[in-house]
Protein 1
Amino acid sequence: MTSILHYEQDELGVVTLTLNHPGTRNALTGTGLVEALLDACQRIETDQVVRAVIITSSGSIFSSGGKIDEMERQIGPDYSSADLRQEYRHGIQRLPLAIHGLEVPTIAAVTGPAIGAGCDLACMCDMRVASEQASFAESFVRIGIVPGDGGAWFLPRLIGMARAAEMSFTGEPVDARTALEWGLVSRVVPAEDLLPTARALARKIAANSGPAVRMTKRLLREGQQSSLANLLELSAAYQAIAHKTGEHAAAVKDFMDKKAARKAAK
């Protein structure tokens, strides 16, 4: 993977993607980071060994979001509104679709401020673990633009409409403790414990059946939009598949062997 995005995979199939563009505080636009993340997602999707993904950053800033000098280019006379719409559709808007669509669970390990599109990047993940130095700002209105990368879809689903509206209409950041209280993150830890905590969580996930975890994630996704009847139909189909996997057979055998051993020891 490129130097602006480090791709690391451990023996359990946990992939860690580390944003590394300190000159722009890990800005997503105008740096190549969007393209690098899209390449990483494609690589992950085609690798059945991968069990979980962590997205984090080097340095004290998770992501500053959009690069301001890119915005200066966009307001120039060479770009029409129609051009900019297509630039969004074929640019950064591919990222929420790619990350949200990953079959394996994703964890954002938020090192510090997550601003604008950086906040939305964290929200694209299934889980968020934050450093005590982290903060989250849906700050688009402060520079006269709107969340163009799916933040208006992700944020209300995570913290409810009223709190999402407060963050989006004021653009003010919330600190890590408030993010925990609101349910935006599931854990807040000291900075030195952030990556070990995220990796421990990812490894707990990776220890389970890969096919079962992937199908469970799909059911959780579908449950946000499907009727109960439709979700039950899909659950029945996935359960039929799960019962025939080698992972399920091994787990049942292990349980029965232990049960027999306990019975024999009595």
Note: DSSP finds twelve helices and nine strands in the chain.
Protein 2
Amino acid sequence: MAVISADTKDALARDVPAAVHCRDALLAGLALYGSAGNEFVTHRNAVARLFWSLLDERTQPIEARSPTRLHRLPTFAIALPPRLRGMPPKPVHKCDRLIEVRAAFLACGSLAAGARGYHLEFVVRSEEIAQRLKWMLRSAGVPPKLVRRKSRVILYYKDFDTIAELLTRIGAFAAVLALEDVRALRETKNRIHRLVNTEAANLERSAQAAAAQRHVIEYLRASYGLTRLTPALREVAELRLKHPDESLAELGRRCNPPISKPTVSSRLGAMTRLADHVRRGQVSAKAVR
């Protein structure tokens, strides 16, 4: 669900910190995690405008590039001032470290909630930068998992609660609400599917049991005679043959007087045992009670 990433980045790009040191940390973080050569590059116009607004030197315009086969989204590039082309020192203040994590998400992060679950990742271009971001995330109390794909290093999360905590810490509150909506909808659908599957399984088991009961009663009618059964057993037998699809509780309500489901089950069990005795030639001429 790419919409979550796009909307989250646009919302975060509009939330500019008030403190000067936080704005400086945001600018440095965007330059660090979003640079490609000597340019800051992004696919979100709002993020490009944020980066440009934080610059003291606004001599370089935002260059818009058309989508390519490799990059299907438009690209926005801004030349990096020389002072932003190196590795900045780690922020001292905790708020600045969280702002750098926000900058990393804006520059190289993505958030998805699809059929396979929830996924938040940061794709960074070097091991050195990956270790720095990993340290920042551990400092925020949400250590990530790490995997390498070719020349890229991926820091990622798949646990919903951890993703929600990280988004909350960097101020992406709308994204947390969107994820909560997705989870609530998914859990509702799963609950409905479980109920439907359980009901279908129960109906299938009931149908199989009813078929087995009818088979026993048909055997007794042919080999023993239903008239030799006691009135109580004969009543249940005849009701089962007349109403082959009904549950035991429904059969019990048709009895005169009505009986409970366990009583119906007991009488059907007695007929099953009688049928076994008949097959073995172990039954007497006396009717079974």
Note: The radius of gyration is 35 Å.
